[in-house]
Write a structure and sequence with these properties.
The structure holds two protein chains of two kinds.
Chain A: H1 5-12, E1 16-17, E2 22-23, E3 30-35, E4 40-47, H2 55-67, E5 74-81, E6 99-106, H3 114-127, E7 132-136, H4 144-148, E8 156-157, E9 160-161, E10 164-166, E11 169-173, H5 174-177, H6 188-200, E12 207-213, H7 220-228, E13 233-238, H8 242-257, E14 262-267, E15 272-273, E16 280-281, H9 288-296, E17 300-303, H10 308-316, H11 320-323, H12 328-348, E18 354-356
Chain B: E1 2-4, E2 10-12, H1 15-20, H2 25-28, H3 36-39, H4 45-48, E3 50-56, E4 60-65, E5 73-75, H5 76-81, H6 86-94
Antiparallel strand pairs in B: 1-2, 3-4, 4-5
Chain lengths: 358, 95
């Protein structure tokens, strides 16, 4: 005799989501459950992100658990993903109505590889199957156009700029608006206006994730962003040496003051494998970000090696996760992207205070 | 104004209380100079009625009063610390 749908849900409720700390049935991840009279069970397993780090484990667990129920002849698990709105918002945000999750990439200190991380994070999320946009909020030193090989000027349609498209990403940078060697000479308040315009006057459309590459510093750009949009969280990039982690910690604490959740720390330029001798060198030291993360009680999201190919491909305009997916650097970025996606999913179950005025 | 917090707690605030707690530089004073609220004893009724509330990022509320005053950003931590329910008052007096 074939089992009842309730029996199937009962066994599936033994699967715990490690990040959300609840079982997958009560999280509403099991959909379109069907049990045929012949004992064939089929259902959709809807993850909160296509870049889910435990996707394969969930599938095997579901298949094994349901397969063990007496009377089940066949199990069909359809794995899908639907990125949820941040903060269980009843209505979309007014600033970025089609965007489900906004993730900022910041560092405090300059030159640690924020843009490289942001570009590869966006590309890795997109490769996993999500719709992703990348906003370059570095008004003075935009790097996204070069790193993505996108050099055209955005078109204007109905008073809104259309983001450029490259490598499956929607892109917008001040480097697209002022191309070539024209500098942006702005005082602070203008920077805020420019960043707001890149959110409100750009037709971002429907996005699962908008990754925002922030400039260094803990001033105008970061403040404007934290005031204008409810950021789901911020990933902090640093290199391992003290002089970088110290500043990264300042950036992290600034976001905490603004009630933006730190998704965690990423260590860039973590080690270097010498191509001639094969030895591993730790040019900028190693493990500094992980130690800082532990001290601050935030997750450590992963480490990226210093690799010539990452730099070469960035200069050539293709993120390394697309051009050399098998390289150690690309694999590190993919792993970090799934950690970021998992941390972001946790935030989508968080509720902001609800305000009523009578 | 009523706030239902992430942890389920509820706080309510009168417009009068919020207006006198306005954290903006004009009301509080800056650089050692006393602000407007330190110089005044009373406020007009239209200064005490909340007209609109806007979320600032996810850390604060910008409260607009009927008089047009809207420069104060009330952080959630300030608002939570201001909660006047018996439970919170008791916790503060023992702390």
């Amino acid at each position: 005799m074939s089992p009842t749908p309730q029996q199937v849900l009962d066994v599936l409720s033994h699967i715990q989501d490690p990040d959300l700390g609840r079982d997958v049935v009560s999280l509403g991840m099991i959909k379109e459950l069907d049990v045929s009279p012949q004992g064939k069970v089929s259902f959709t397993f809807e993850l909160t992100t296509p870049a889910c780090p435990v996707r394969d484990r969930f599938k095997t667990q579901a298949q094994d658990l349901v397969g063990d129920i007496p009377g089940v002849s066949e199990v069909e698990v359809r794995m899908t993903a639907n990125v949820r709105q941040a903060f269980m918002r009843p209505k979309p945000s007014e600033v970025l109505p089609g965007v489900k999750q906004t993730i900022a990439v910041a560092s405090g200190k300059g030159g640690v590889g924020k843009s490289t991380v942001a570009v590869n994070l966006a590309a890795a999320l997109s490769k996993a199957g999500a719709t992703v946009g990348l906003l370059d909020a570095d008004i003075y030193g935009p790097s996204v156009p070069a790193m993505t090989g996108s050099h055209s000027v955005p078109e204007q349609v109905n008073g809104q700029l259309k983001p450029l498209e490259a490598h499956g990403l929607k892109l917008m940078s001040f480097g697209h608006i002022y191309p070539g060697d024209q500098p942006t000479i702005y005082r602070g308040p203008m920077v805020g206006k420019a960043i707001e315009a890149m959110m409100t006057q750009v037709d971002w459309g429907q996005l699962d994730y908008l990754v925002i590459d922030l400039p260094p510093g803990t001033g105008d750009a970061s403040l404007t962003l934290a005031q204008a949009v409810p950021l789901t969280g911020v990933a902090i990039v640093c290199t391992p040496q003290d002089v970088a982690t110290d500043i990264a910690v300042k950036a992290l604490q600034m976001f905490r003051k603004l009630n933006v959740t730190p998704l965690g720390l990423i260590e860039n330029m973590s080690w270097y494998i010498c191509p001639s001798c094969g030895h591993r060198h730790e040019i900028f030291s190693h493990g500094g970000a992980e130690a800082a993360a532990q001290r601050l009680g935030v997750p450590f999201l992963g480490a990226v090696p210093l690799e010539e190919s990452i730099r070469e491909d960035a200069d050539a305009g293709t993120p390394v996760v697309i051009s050399r997916p098998e390289s150690a650097g690309a694999r590190a970025f993919v792993e970090i992207a799934s950690q970021v996606a998992a941390r972001t999913s946790i935030q989508s179950f968080r509720q902001l205070p609800v305000i009523n005025v009578r | 104004m009523v706030i239902a917090w992430e942890d389920g707690h509820r706080s309510s605030y009168s417009g009068e209380r919020l207006r006198w707690a306005c954290p903006c530089a004009e009301c509080r004073g800056e650089a050692g100079a006393p602000g407007r609220l330190a110089r005044l004893k009373t406020l007009e009724p239209n200064e005490l009625r909340v007209k609109d509330v806007a979320l600032v990022g996810q850390y604060a509320l910008q409260i607009a009063f009927e008089s047009g005053h809207a420069t104060g950003l009330y952080t959630f931590s300030l608002l939570r610390a201001m909660c006047d329910c018996p439970e919170c008052r008791a916790r503060r007096s023992t702390a």
